[in-house]
From TrEMBL:
Keywords in alphabetical order: Glycosyltransferase, Transferase
Keyword Repeat attributed: no
PANTHER family, alphabetized: GLYCOSYLTRANSFERASE, OS04G0273600 PROTEIN
Name listed for the protein in its UniProt record: UDP-glycosyltransferase
Family: Belongs to the UDP-glycosyltransferase family.
Single GO MF descriptor: UDP-glucosyltransferase activity
């Protein structure tokens, strides 16, 4: 009997900005480890992901059932790019409803492979997936597709709402080293509308709580750029934090084929060169 390969399950949020880095990581893992990769997403996105996978890749795509209309989303919903802000918020808040279907998907994989996956790498917004992973005794990691410093600001400000506790226009960032501060004008508008206990804050509070149970965090960055942010998470979350970036891929341009791109990699590189 042939030896069963180890299987890694990857589950990004339903947005191109999350799916593309996840797919880039999946291709790197497949190339460097030889493990089988199971890539999970809703049917609306699986159809768009399939053409992005190179013909030489054996990455397996699995659909997880999702009925947009059951959650007040357009029945023809295909991509987050077409959703207005209020419906985007609804998509985030209803994402835990995927948990039963994800549990069944993992159970089916265990039955098929006669062993649990080696690990589950989930999106930061799917913190609830750690419960499913641990039910099956599987290592769980969160992949943050952005940098450590930006994610630290996101985590610290939403967790503490420090701008709501001071009349000063500039305030320190909880958890950051002394001397780091931010001005209220630097905050996006939705931070100003936040109220502790509202649906979005409640969703994030539970998500941050779920992060504490994860076995590790991955960031699409390098230590030299985001050391402060990475150290913040090592202290706040208390699990191993690995910078694994930068994950660069041409998949993003393929996914947006036919669209007017605002910039290209060459354009960005020239701009960076002009700043040195």
């Amino acid at each position: 009997m042939a030896e069963t390969k180890e299987n890694i399950v990857m589950f990004p949020f339903m947005a191109q900005g999350h799916i593309i880095p996840f797919l880039g990581l999946a291709l790197e893992l497949e190339k460097k480890t030889g493990y089988t990769i199971t890539f999970v997403n809703i049917p609306q996105n699986i159809k768009k992901i399939q053409p992005l996978i190179p013909p030489t890749s054996a990455i397996r795509l699995l659909e997880i059932p999702f009925d947009p209309s059951a959650h007040g989303l357009p029945p023809s919903f295909e991509t987050t790019e077409s959703l207005p802000p209020l419906l985007m918020l609804r998509l985030f808040i209803t994402s835990p409803s995927l948990q039963p279907a994800f549990r069944k998907l993992i159970s089916d994989l265990v039955h098929e492979h006669r062993q649990p996956p080696l690990c589950i790498i989930s999106d930061m917004f799917f913190g609830w997936s750690v419960k499913v992973a641990h039910e099956f005794g599987v290592f769980h990691a969160i992949f943050n597709v952005g940098g450590g410093n930006a994610m630290t600001l996101f985590h610290s400000i939403w967790l503490n709402l420090p701008h709501k506790k001071t009349e000063s226009e500039e305030f320190p960032i909880p958890g950051f080293p002394e001397g780091y501060s931010i001005h209220v004008k630097q905050l996006p508008d939705h931070f100003h509308y936040a109220v502790a206990g509202d649906p979005w804050c409640s969703f994030l509070k539970q998500m941050f709580q779920d992060w504490l149970e994860s076995d590790g965090m991955l960031f699409n960055t390098i230590e030299e750029i985001d050391h402060v942010g990475l150290e913040y998470f090592r202290q706040q979350i208390g699990c191993p934090v690995w910078p694994i970036g930068p994950i660069l891929s041409s998949l993003g341009s393929k996914a947006r084929a036919g669209e007017e791109a605002e910039s290209t990699l060459n354009h960005c590189m020239k701009w960076l060169d002009s700043k040195t």
